[in-house]
Amino acid sequence: MKRLSIVIIFILYVLAGPAFGYWIWTPESGKWENPKYAAKDTPEDQIVYAKKFYEAKNIKDALREFKKLLKHYPLSKEAPVAQYYIGRIMEDLDNLYEAFKAYQKVIDTYPYTELVDDVIEREYKIADAFFLGKKIKIVGKWQMPAKDKAIEIFKAVADNAPYGKYADLAKFKAGLCYKDIQDYNSAMLIFKDLIDRYPDSSVIDKARYQLAECSKLLAVKPAYDQTPTNLARKEFEDFLKKHPDSDMALDAKQVVDKLKSREAENAYETGKFYEARKAPESAVIYYKDIVRNYPDTEWTKKAQERLNELEKK
Prior knowledge:
313 residues, mainly alpha, two-stranded antiparallel ribbon, two-stranded antiparallel sheet, 4% strand
């Protein structure tokens, strides 16, 4: 009876083995192991084995074998290579955010690997894809814009190599992303940091312009507190002073003119406010300020008319 049971078990093992994998006794580990889940004897052999699957475009098996290397040989010189290829696989599958996380793990876990420069370049390109409109998958076919992911990755690129090839460009585009989602305060902080840290950057004049532009966007429509508008004008005037020959100088000049007109309009409305409150002396102060400081705006003529009328009274 015992012999029959052994025969039955052996038959089941032979029949079921291909489906579930054979288990063998390994004296080295002192336990039963399934070769399907076992790594090669050395990390060198394992990385070669995994790369063969990747080169044959057998993504599923390649991913399994690279992960197997990381599990069994996490401190080997092949480990960062395996982690890098996991990022490559995620890119191939169009899972760009997962690819970024895999690449970032290369830098976080193996900061001295020779792959760092390549990893940072790939991260920058992923961020740029999100910046240019690439959407991120949520559930099934549902996708959504990923400017927040672009910001996260651009900032990671700059942090990974503060004086690397992509640092200033990554900061600049992170600022543009903040501007696109109307977080103007964060955008201004990014642009200011870029200007302070990378004075020789190829995008320094664009960063100054964007800093001024964000200041302008923060400025509210004519109101009694005109501080944001004043700050925005000063940012643009500073840009014109430092970059008079820039391609954006004409646009900046037009913005300055508009902001001056807005300031003058605000002063005029404030003067009218004091007139309505029977305080002509205060109104005169604002009207005179317009005539003196904003002579090229449309509000100068109106302010002068109010001054003439008040003098008659």
